[in-house]
Amino acid sequence: MNPSQDSIYLDHAATTAVDPRVLETMLPYLSSVCGNPSSIHGTGQAARRAMENARASVAEILGAHPDEVVFTSCGTESDNLALRGALYAAPSGRNQIITSQIEHHAILNTGEQLQQMGYEVTYLPVDRYGMVDPDDVAAAITERTALISIMYANNEVGTVQPLPEIGRIARDHGIPLHTDAVQAPGGLDLNVDRLQVDMLSISGHKFYAPKGVGALYIRRGTPIAASQTGGAQERHMRAGTENVPGIIALAKALELVESARPSESIRQRTLSQRLQEGLLAAIPHAFLAGHPTQRLPNNTNIVFEGIVGEAVVSRLDLAGIASSSGSACAAGEEGESPVMRAMGLDEQLGQGSVRLTVGRENTSGDIEQVIGVLPGIIQSLRELSPVPLGESSI
Question: For FRET with 204, which of 74, 139, 153, 231 sits at 20 to 30 Å CA-CA?
């Protein structure tokens, strides 16, 4: 269902509504099964059993062992644990992380802080489609490298990275590979062995679970230290009383989107392709950002020359259509997106992107309505602030 029955919600990359089946599954753990999973009495142990069943369910989908799944509060915490934990546990002299210029702020801002603490962070470039070259990964590796962290699929432009190839390079050098896979559930394969990754982050609210719960897969034998200390929860990897209702919800939501993935990813890709084709045919001086084929099935990101994306988002909102001009976690920041800059767009073009991400409640009727509304919005904004329009390219 739509977050609002009167609106068309096309911002699923930012967050999703809680699935009613997920809500039903978690409700008992907010009331009758309210025990602390660290308590030894019956109510506490009932909560622990449910939590461990959820852990086993998540692990099965990832192709992992249950003891390789650590529950966190969100994707940002999972990313922080992976980066900081790998550096803190690394042998003396291994103080470098290799990542890319288009990572989520959870990686970029953490990297910046780690640099201020004396660690080395290498930011790899991307091509005009937002793709990392595995050869650049190999060239950046030194005897100081402790971790490689490359996101699975970009949250703004949807480009999917060649993780298996990067993973083979990492393994050849004995370096763990982490991936921010927050955008992947429901659209992409999550099997950690096929992806060749050693750590993987997910966040429940991106796939119809509540906000406030996530997970980090950590392959057995991967050196990692806790970045949050206190009690012995999550095998000493993440201190703090577990969010049992959230964990139950995350596992149920992941089961649901994974079981629907074969058909739903095709349906969403069809909707996205129609949206892309319809808008680009109707609006001159516009182009698709990100890789044309190696991209998330639900992601459409279009750059419109001569306008600012946030103005389009505001106009669409008035028309009852929810969209985004980039990462929700970066909303309110001025200037061009780091992703657009890394892909080679100048500042004016980089501010003109609009992200439209479909979900399972969207229909072909929604798409046709957007195609009918958005060209007029772009024309109106261009007339208000005319600028010379040239050949759009990345």
Answer: 231
